[in-house]
């Protein structure tokens, strides 16, 4: 027999919601989330039916913040630190969360407007150290190179299918040197 106990697990629990086109429904949804004890709420400022090309609802995200008694993060269309600040200011939320923006530029919240080469190197290093598959490896790099590659470069890069061929490409076209990169990172760690 399984004995049910009322154990409390001390882990934060959050919820991510979208807004409803009827904002009273959004408000009700927030109240329900609060009633079950969520620690914070992330709100994607689009309805379920809206495409990511449509702009987010500042009004909807602001309402979620007003109704909520726990911290609220706004999500949608954060592609720069300026976007994040603008949304925080307009809605009063406690922070923002990015998906496409951070995939393309992992240094976005550090204030970089374009993906620094160090991000690419760090990603390559971590992916190779922890292990990944060619599809995911390729996909993350495609995101990171989205704005910097020309169409012709992208066509060649997108056709690569194995990790060694991707590394060869980066060595040839971007001067990636894994041994140098690791030595540099190890020296930085010692300094810290
Ligand atoms: C590659 C990718 C995967 C995603 N996967 C999920 C998911 O599993 N669950 C979810 O709620 N939203 C998912 N989303 C949506 C994002 O979390 C986010 O709400 C949406 O992209 C809007 O934020 P953005 O404008 O910063 O991209 C995904 C988005 C992307 C780009």
TrEMBL record:
Domain DUS-like FMN-binding, chain residue ranges per copy: 2-150
Domain of life, source organism: Eukaryota
SUPFAM superfamilies, A to Z: FMN-linked oxidoreductases
Any Pfam family: Dus
GO MF term set: tRNA dihydrouridine synthase activity
Annotated protein name in UniProt: tRNA-dihydrouridine(20a/20b) synthase [NAD(P)+]-like protein
Record gene name: DUS4L_2
């Amino acid at each position: 027999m399984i004995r049910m106990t009322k154990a409390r697990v001390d882990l934060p629990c959050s919820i991510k919601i979208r807004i409803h086109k009827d904002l009273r429904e959004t408000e009700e949804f927030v109240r329900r989330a609060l009633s079950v004890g969520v620690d914070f709420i992330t709100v994607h400022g689009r309805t379920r039916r809206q495409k990511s090309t449509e702009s987010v609802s500042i009004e909807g995200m602001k309402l979620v913040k007003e109704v909520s008694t726990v911290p609220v993060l706004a999500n949608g269309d954060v592609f720069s630190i300026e976007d994040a600040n603008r949304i925080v200011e307009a809605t009063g939320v406690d922070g923002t969360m990015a998906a496409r923006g951070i995939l393309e530029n992992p240094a976005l919240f550090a204030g970089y407007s374009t993906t620094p080469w160090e991000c690419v190197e760090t990603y390559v290093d971590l992916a190779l150290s922890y292990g990944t598959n060619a599809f995911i490896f390729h996909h993350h790099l495609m995101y990171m190179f989205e704005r910097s590659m020309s169409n012709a470069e992208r066509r060649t890069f997108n056709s690569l299918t194995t990790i060694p061929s991707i590394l060869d490409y980066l060595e040839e076209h971007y001067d990636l040197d894994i041994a140098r990169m690791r030595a540099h990172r190890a020296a930085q760690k010692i300094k810290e």
